[in-house]
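Write out this protein's structure.
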Amino acid sequence: MAIIRGVARIDRKTKNLIKRLNPGEIAVIAHEGIDKLAAEGLVSTRTKAVINACCSISGDYPNSGPKIITDAGIPIIDEVGPEIFESVQEEDELEIIEDRIYKRGVRIGSGTLLTPERIEEGMEKARAKMNHVFERFVDNTLTYAKQEVSLVAGHLDTPSVNVDFKGRHALVVVRGDNYREDLLAIQLYIREIKPILIGVDGGADAILEFGLKPDIVIGDMDSVSDHALSQAGEIIVHAYPDGQAPGLARVQALGLKAKTFASPGTSEDIAMLLAYEKGASLIVAVGTHSNMLDFLEKGRKGMASTFLVRLKVGSILVDAKGVSQLYRSPLRPRHLAPIFLAALIPVAIVMMLYPTTRDLLHLLYIQVRVLLGI
């Protein structure tokens, strides 16, 4: 491994770091079990290297993040320890030699250089534990489901909204796995049906990526951009069951108005509940978390609220997650040929109408015959 030099960008939250990480810089993070979305974000910044204070490989499930990063040619110095955040400041010049980290020629830390072999070994260990992890996950889900059953059976005090849901489709967008591909796959549906667009936290930015504006932004307000909030038709802050809403202060600091929705569970859960309670005829979900691996990537031990919410809204819920994977066909020459020939027809007609172009075509025809020896 060659010596790596670069400016440090440092943040304990990877999603915050990605927003300001520039090509050629070194990412310093504290991310236990790097998930796919975080890995893809780091790769997209073209960072030179990743220094992780924590263990990048999850002990509970075979997380794909480390492999995505190393496959992109970006080295990971793993398990450096939390003291790296005391030794490194933003924009420090760092030097990495193998698994050792230096600042101004002084060694400030070391870890484990993740190789493909080490990553695969860690993944195998996680796979071997999956049965035990699954049992524990189900136990947690059922335990908390008993406590949160009011999501289905009890009265839900949903906030009033300006948009009328009755009889309309609602598209709930979460910035989860393959959200870009899935949004692209349903663009025709969005244009024709014009569903109510609900962005769950960073899902609002995903909606903006496609030239659309979210009708509602709902969530904890921890991963949505200021720009997306300013473009939202309405803002609903997810509050704890006791009414506390930490994300409300951020919205108010931007000079924007917001309502709160107090409920247990995740923000994507209450986005679906809002659409359901307000009378949506269909809920289409993109990028949402709906299985054990999704929740383990989010660091959650169970999915009680999601299980209950999907029981409640299941009759009108269409999960579009992964729809882009249903059919993938590469563009082949035989697909292009009819398009090319169709485009040539009007050109040929125009050219044949003028004597000059007719003569030019005739000369080209003769030249082709000479070249081919016809």
